[in-house]
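Box S2. Input/output pair 1.
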Amino acid sequence: MQISTGLLCLLLVATAFTSQVLAHPGSIPVSCCFAMTSKKIPKPLLKSYKKITNSRCTLRAIVFKTKLGKDICADPKQKWVQDAIKHLDQILPTLKP
């Protein structure tokens, strides 16, 4: 009986430790773009954007969020993408620390 209680405690400790390791930020999946749109997205349809610059991703990209909730990957080197970013930067409220 004592052996099974000790084994159970050891198993619980091991499970807790494994959960802590898996929850470490380094193990969180990274959002990457594997293809980019070839179509220009009209500015009125855009809601926000984020830059994908993670070294784990093969493509550097901008992910636009549309007003319909879709995420669309775009090439940051394209002029329309740069213009859309400037537009969103002007209309989105800036966060103050």
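Box S3. Input/output pair 2.
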Amino acid sequence: MDTDNRVSVTELDSSLNCIDTKVSVFEVFGLDNFRNNSNSWEDKLHALSLENLRFVSGFPTANLVLTITNQAILFNLEDTRGTILRDRMYILQDSDRVFGAYSEFLKEKLSSCADPEWLKQHFPVIALYNITQHYCNCTSLYLKEQRKIFEDSKVALESNFSGKSLHVLREARQSVEHISKKVDEIANNFVACLASDTHSWFQCENDAAQSIVSEVYAEEILKIVKRLQQEANNLLQECRSVELRYTSMLEADFVRLLSSFLFSRFLVCIFSFYTMLIEFFHSNFFKPTPSSAATAGFAILVSGIYISAFLAIYAFQRWLTRKKFTVLFL
């Protein structure tokens, strides 16, 4: 069962060596000593979700699990003083290797620290800060690219309104929407992870200065994420506003085109129907000596075609303008 529960991680030790390997979930969560007690580790393993890791408690060691969508950074802490268990940190890999790809960056960033002991004391929160900062910087650059696409599409729509430009704008909005949703999840997870009941993992009871340093880093982490969150949400609102305005214009043009087409076909059907009625009336009721009633009926039938067509067009137009049309670009 141990083989079935191995996960891909990037292991970053105290010597700042980055190694891609697979480790057992029992080792990551400190369950090595409980394998003989099947009920204990089975229950604990069942409570874990490698797809959506969360804070766990009740283990032999204090484990801090930071949820970031489907990726997670695991800091194995020996105790609340911040000493790292076996002097290592695990970074779980996701399919895109988002955080695992930052291991070399983190290695370079942390190697500039002059005091290894100080680095060891603050390693979890410093590593988290640098990874978060690098992730937010890369995401911000991508948002700038999407903003450029958005601005170009907006200019194209203003100069020459077309469905193609609106399609490009919609694709940009969808990309920004995906990023915004992901950043919102990350921000919410950070807020939950750094809440008062869990933030104590970053604090040291015997060293007030160390706790202050961790507190400052935690606040900076939240500021960085919230700044990116605001940037993504602002761009998303702009994209939605412009897309809605031009989509409404396109829908109006579509309704006018559709109504003109349908009205013409509808009138053809009405005139054809009345032509058959007139022919039928003429064949069966007109005699060499027509009566006044037959003549009046024929006159009403001929004039009724225009009245019926007018009423049909008016009713159909009223019904059509109240409908909502969604233009889909495939």
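Caption for Box S3: Residues 1-5, 25-103, 196-206, 324-330 have pLDDT under 50 and may be disordered. The CA atoms of residues 12 and 89 lie 5 Å apart.
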